[in-house]
Write a structure and sequence with these properties.
This protein has five helices and no strands. With 80 residues, the chain is mainly alpha-helical.
Length: 80
Amino acid sequence: MKGVNLMKFGDNLRQIRKSKKMSQEQLAEKVNVTRQSVSKWENGESYPEMNNILELCKIFNCKLNDLVHTDMKDISSLDE
């Protein structure tokens, strides 16, 4: 798939989470995982299961592409 890079997932997740002014701990509670899991996702050490990815999309009111797409230059639309 063009523009999809799972290695960028962690960077995108961190960027979106911070844009929402949410801590790793707060996100972990919402997804029902440990803070360490969120840290590993953001650092590319592991990836969430699909059900957790879908939950992240709901929490951040974003599309899957927003999490896995390589070009995250403008995330201002996610702040709405």
